């Protein structure tokens, strides 16, 4: 039972979240830190860090070659912001990172990367590429990171290197992912393809067949539901800023390994009872800025759930058992954060025991509701 002092602490903890970083907290960690959402940053530093133990062949620097206007140092060739209309010639064969971002390249031709077998990371961000030759990437035997965002692609290029681990292809014009698009890419771990005008019907059956992804993001698209047959290996799935209207019982039944699920900024009105039971290992759930009128059923049974974003919905009531299990010791991890601000619920009507499984009272966020 909570004392009067506990109730006072709860009331004092009521605050309003205004920082956008809390509303949109999706940040990858560790291996996926660099080139988030097309921001390549200090590629030299990151490549040297990531390349440790990568098995890329060590070659003596070829200082005799460097494309005009580019900077070549330590196996890194930087040709960004040069208004290039094609991939430059005479790229050193010992190149491991090739930076071609922020140019005007329109096409990748068959021999553009001929002889560049040691490239580990390739950035083509923010060009005007609409055409890729089917054998353009064939020479890139050791390519692990491909950054293709902010171009004019209408389909995902064919014959991507089997060594590829990370593909970022967001903010293109992709409307379709055909069956077998990712065949032979057993090492792929991360795909970022948000910001494309793709609908649910654009994913053909078998589009993701063979992939063992940990991370997939299809945000800012035209999805009206959770796509079918995504890789069942996923740890993170981000579908924020779409037009998803409901979560049905079978939508999540493949994803028992999910740790983080992002469904914020959609049109979700209903989450079918029992849907969340298929993601028992979930740590973080984002349902902010939707149209829910109640707390989703099943949260008390999620032993590892630590963060729940439910702000800016239509929730008018919070019951004492909406978040925490009835029995003591049934929850393995206490909540770190529960956000409920921007809902028509009076925080003073919520019983303090509702948050008995929250580790820190500062993790409870209400705020004043404004119509």
UniProtKB/TrEMBL annotation:
Residues 1-23 form the signal peptide. PROSITE patterns: LRR. It is found in: Secreted, Extracellular space, Extracellular matrix. InterPro entries: Leu-rich_rpt, Leu-rich_rpt_typical-subtyp, LRRNT, SLRP, SLRP_I_decor/aspor/byglycan. Keywords: Disulfide bond, Extracellular matrix, Glycoprotein, Leucine-rich repeat, Repeat, Secreted, Signal. Residues 65-97 form the LRRNT domain. GO terms for cellular component: extracellular space. It holds the Pfam family LRR_8. May be involved in collagen fiber assembly. Belongs to the small leucine-rich proteoglycan (SLRP) family. SLRP class I subfamily. This is Biglycan. It comes from Cyprinus carpio. The lineage of its organism: Eukaryota, Metazoa, Chordata, Craniata, Vertebrata. The gene is LOC109061910.
């Amino acid at each position: 039972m909570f004392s009067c002092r506990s109730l006072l602490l709860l009331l004092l903890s009521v605050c309003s979240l205004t920082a956008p970083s809390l509303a949109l907290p999706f940040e990858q960690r560790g291996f996926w830190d660099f080139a988030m959402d097309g921001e390549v940053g200090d590629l030299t530093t990151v490549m040297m860090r990531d390349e440790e133990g990568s098995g890329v062949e060590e070659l003596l620097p070829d200082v005799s070659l460097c494309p005009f206007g580019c900077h070549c140092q330590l196996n890194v060739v930087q040709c960004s912001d040069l208004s290039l209309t094609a991939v430059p010639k005479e790229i050193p064969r010992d190149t491991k990172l090739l930076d071609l971002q922020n140019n005007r390249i329109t096409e990748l031709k068959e021999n553009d990367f001929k002889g560049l077998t040691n490239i580990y990371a390739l950035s083509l961000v923010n060009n005007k590429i609409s055409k890729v030759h089917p054998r353009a990437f064939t020479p890139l035997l050791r390519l692990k990171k491909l950054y293709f965002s902010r171009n004019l692609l209408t389909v995902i290029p064919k014959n991507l290197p089997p060594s590829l681990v990370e593909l970022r292809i967001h903010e293109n014009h992709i409307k379709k992912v055909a069956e077998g698009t990712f065949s032979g890419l057993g090492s792929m771990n991360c795909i970022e393809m948000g910001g494309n005008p793709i609908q649910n019907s654009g994913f053909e059956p078998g589009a993701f067949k063979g992939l063992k992804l940990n991370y997939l993001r299809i945000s800012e698209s035209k999805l009206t539901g959770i796509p079918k047959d995504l890789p069942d290996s996923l740890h993170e799935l981000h579908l924020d800023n779409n037009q998803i209207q409901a979560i049905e019982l079978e939508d999540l039944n493949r994803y028992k390994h999910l740790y983080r699920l992002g469904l914020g900024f959609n049109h979700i009105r209903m989450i079918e009872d029992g849907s969340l039971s298929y993601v028992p290992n979930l740590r973080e759930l984002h349902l902010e800025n939707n149209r829910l009128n109640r707390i989703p059923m099943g949260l008390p049974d999620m032993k590892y759930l630590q963060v729940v974003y439910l702000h800016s919905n239509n929730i008018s009531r919070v019951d004492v058992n909406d978040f925490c299990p009835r029995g003591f010791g049934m929850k393995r991890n206490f909540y770190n954060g529960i956000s409920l601000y921007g809902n028509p619920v009076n925080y003073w009507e919520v019983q303090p025991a509702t948050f008995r499984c929250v580790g820190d009272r500062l993790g409870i966020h209400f705020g004043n509701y404004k119509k």
